[in-house]
Amino acid sequence: MKVIIVNDPQEGGKAGFKQFKDALANGARCFGLATGGTPQTTYEQLRNSDLDFSSCRSINLDEYVGLAPDNDQSYHYFMQQNLFNAKPFAHSDVPNGLASDIAAECQRYDQLIREHPIDFQLLGIGRNGHIAFNEPGSPVDGWTHEVKLTQSTIDANARFFANEDEVPRSALSMGIGAIMAGKKIMLEAYGENKADAVAATIEGPVTPDVPASILQKHPDVVMIIDKAAASKLQKQY
Ligand code: PGA
Fold first, then answer.
1. In whole angstroms, what is the distance from residue 102 CA to residue 32 CA?
2. Residue 184 Cα distances to 162, 166, 223, angstroms
3. Marked catalytic residue, from 60, 82, 96, 128
4. Inside any domain, residue 94
5. Is residue 233 part of a domain?
6. 234 domain-assigned
7. Distance of CA 204 from the midpoint of ligand 1 (Å)
8. 168-218, pLDDT tens digit by residue?
9. Which of 22, 60, 86, 201 is buried most deeply by CB count within 10 Å?
10. Which atom of ligand 1 lies nearest, measured to the CA of 157?
11. Number of Cβ atoms within 10 Å of the Cβ of 162
């Protein structure tokens, strides 16, 4: 794993942007994208850049079950606002949280990922070490599936909703197997509340208890973390 420690999320956004730029220059055409607070500085850099994704495809990690694409808490909506309105892709896919047949939607999504292998995968990390909505204990070879959110994730995401009761209780998520199939992975983490998860991911044992720790086994991972998120690392990077 390559570890890049930056001062703050703003500097992280610039480092994240450089990874996107290099990936594009090196021929990446399918980008796995993430939502949440973490990637916002990177998306800001991308929006304000001259990079052109109009011949590229994007595939998002996850979506809440039950939220329509135009719901302002949906991940569809987040992506439109944070990236796609400014930087359109030729095709952008996000799981359909309104699908009446969830199993068929998961199959459709897996098929899509198999047909369009992800060249560059962006990830955040949960305080409990989750990646996408793969909570602790998730199988390392999983593909798209419906996930019941843990209380830790509901609490963390409640800040985006009027109150905790409005946070959906489940989501559709790409699995860890599909994430690990990405050719290159960039994980960003900012803030002290990610420090335990970051330390366990980089320096702890590979265990399903910390889903992101499996990234130690991927051949091309770059971690962009700020000083606060790096504060519990034992080694120097
Ligand atoms: P956050 O979420 O970027 O909003 O902190 C990250 C995650 O839960 O994966």
1. 21
2. 36, 35, 11
3. 128
4. yes
5. no
6. no
7. 20
8. 999 999 999 999 999 999 999 999 999 999 999 999 999 999 999 999 999
9. 201
10. 4
11. 9
